[in-house]
Amino acid sequence: MSQFPFPTEDGGEPPIEEAAAAESVDIESTGTGDGESGGVGSGDLNTGDLSTGDLNTEAANDGVAPADSSAGAAPAGPSTSHESVPSDAVHPDTILAAERLADLQRLNAEYVNYKRRVDRDRPLIQERAIQDVIEAMLPVLDDIQAGRDHGDLVDGPFAAIADKLEGTLGKFGAVRYGAVGETFDPAVHEALMHLDAAAVPGGMPQGASDTTVVQVLQPGYRVGDRVLRPARVAVADPA
C-alpha cells in the first residue's frame, strides 16, 4: 500500500500533515477490529497485565517508608498564640510601684514637716505652759509680798515656805520687777496715780529727769520678754 493512499485532486500526493493525519486514522480503524488482525485493541488494554501497579503497591507495603513531607521543612518558630507586647509599653506592676513610691515619699515629707513643726514649737509650748502656771500663782505671790511689806514674813515657817515658792518659780524664769526711782515705761508699768513733785512723800528721787515711779502699788511679773502683769505704780514729774 502506498504511503499516501489519498491522492490530491490534481493527481499529486497530499502534504505531509495531511498524510500523517490519514495514517493516524488508518491505525485507529485497524485497532478496533478483532484480535486476529494483530493489532492492540481497546479490549487488550482493559484486560492487560496491570502487574506494574501491583508491584508498586507491594513495594509500598514491604517497608519502603514514604518520603516525609516535613523532612525538609524549617523548624517551627515560637508560638504566636499570645498577643505580642510593644517594647515601649509599661507593665502595670511598674505603674503601681511608682504610685506606691510617690505615696510613700509624700507621707515621708508630711512626717518630716510635722516633726520640724513639733521641734520648733516645743520650746514655745513649754514656755507658754510655764507662763500660764506662774500667772495663775500671781495672787499667791501678791499675798506673800504684802505679808513681807507688813513685816509678817520676817522669819518663821511661813517665811521659809514663801521663800521656797518664790525660788522655785524663779527657776522657771519668773521675775518680779517694779521699784521706786525707775523711769516710767508704759510697756511694763501701769500708772494708777499721777502726783505733783511737791506732793511726793519723801520728795522726788535723786537724778529724776523724766516721769518717774514714786510708789509701787503692786509689783509686776514677767517671764523672759513676756510681761505677765505690768507693775502698778504712782508716778510724778520732776519740777
Briefly say what this structure is.
By secondary structure, the chain is of the alpha+beta class. The chain has helices spanning 16-31, 42-46, 51-61, 92-136, 138-149, 157-171; strands at residues 174-177, 189-195, 212-218, 220-223, 226-229, 231-236.
Structural features, described:
Among the domains are: 91-136; 137-172; 176-239, Nucleotide Exchange Factor Grpe, Chain A, domain 2, CATH 2.30.22.10. It contains six helices and six strands, in the order ααααααββββββ. A hairpin with a 2-residue loop joins strand 4 and strand 5. The longest helix has 45 residues, at 92-136. By secondary structure, the protein is α+β, with helices and mostly antiparallel strands. It has a three-stranded antiparallel beta sheet with strand order 1-4-5. A three-stranded mixed beta sheet has the order 2-6-3, with no helix packed on it.
Give, in order, the helices and strands.
HHHHHHEEEEEE
Question: What spatial form do the alpha-carbon principal axes imply?
Answer: elongated
Low-confidence stretches: 27-82
Q: Looking across the biggest beta sheet, what order are the strands in? A: 1-4-5
Helix content estimate: 40-55%
> What number is the mean pLDDT?
74
Q: Helix/strand-derived class?
A: alpha+beta
CATH architecture of the domain at 176-239: Roll
**CATH fold naming of the domain at 176-239:** Nucleotide Exchange Factor Grpe, Chain A, domain 2
Query: What is the CATH homologous superfamily assignment of the domain at 176-239?
Result: Head domain of nucleotide exchange factor GrpE
- CATH class type of the domain at 176-239: Mainly Beta
End-to-end distance: 184 Å
* Largest sheet geometry: 3 strands, antiparallel
Count of helical stretches: 6
Radius of gyration: 68 Å
**DSSP strand count:** 6
